[in-house]
Amino acid sequence: MSLNPTIPGYTYGTSAVPGAAISMEEFELLKKTVLFGEEDVKALQQSKTMVKDQVEAILDVWYGFVGSNPHLVSTFLRVADGQPDMEYLGAVRKRFGRWILDTAGGSYDQAWLDYQFEIGRRHHRVGKNMTDKVAAAPHIPFRYLPALLYPVTATLRPFLAKQGHSEAEVSAMHQAWIKSVLLQVILWSYPYVKEGDF
Ligand code: HEM
Question: Which residues neighbour 193 within 8 Å (Cβ) at sequence distance 6 or greater?
């Protein structure tokens, strides 16, 4: 079942996505390791009521950060002329927007787990550029993936605080987001890790 067939390249839940490289049981142990539990799922779902109305504003902040850092935006440049591929940026932005909702949805089932490995491949040379059929930079260096966790989650916090929730609620939502993005970046690392070492 495709969760949103109208977003080009968003294959979450479809048979186009190969199975995850780890089992659900192994994923459970990973969740346990980052202290991600049911209360985090609830906090993420609470955050969804806020982030769903602010997706474009959140993306403006994140894209602004990537766009103002030449070493990051370089991954969106066409190899041929070194110019940003605006169609590529736009297509990825749509899937990124959907990712905000999927992350906040907190439904981390088998289809979700499978898609995390797909997102990992899309950052690595094994799969980058293929979804949008572009000839942009071929690879994203691994070191920037965990690094981006910090600005992404730090800049999200003000959006979680906009609807008058208590400090404790905002903090719980923010911590849940940090844990979820950490889990995802770990799963996305799979193609970067030497075979047998993940
Ligand atoms: C916490 C770290 C990161 C998050 C949360 C994140 C999130 C995402 C998401 C949700 C997508 C779309 C996935 C899909 O196709 O459904 C994506 C794609 C992409 N991201 Fe990231 N990303 C991170 C790190 C980075 C870094 C460090 C760079 C560049 C330096 C980067 C550049 C890109 C590019 C170029 C694509 C398109 C890949 C393709 O060709 O399909 N991302 N990212």
Answer: none
pLDDT digits over 141-150, tens only? 999 999 999 9
What is the best residue among 4, 69, 114, 148 to mutate for testing ligand 1's pocket, by most ligand atoms within 8 Å of CB? 148
Identify the residues whose C-beta falls under 6 Å from ligand 1: 9-10, 72, 75-76, 92, 95-96, 99, 119, 122-123, 128-129, 131-132, 140, 144-145, 148-149, 152, 181, 185
What global pTM score does this model have?
A: 0.97
Query: Superfamily assignment of 24-190 in CATH?
Result: Globins (1.10.490.10)
Question: Is the model's pLDDT at 172 over the cut of 70?
Answer: yes
Sketch the domain layout of the chain as residue ranges: 24-190
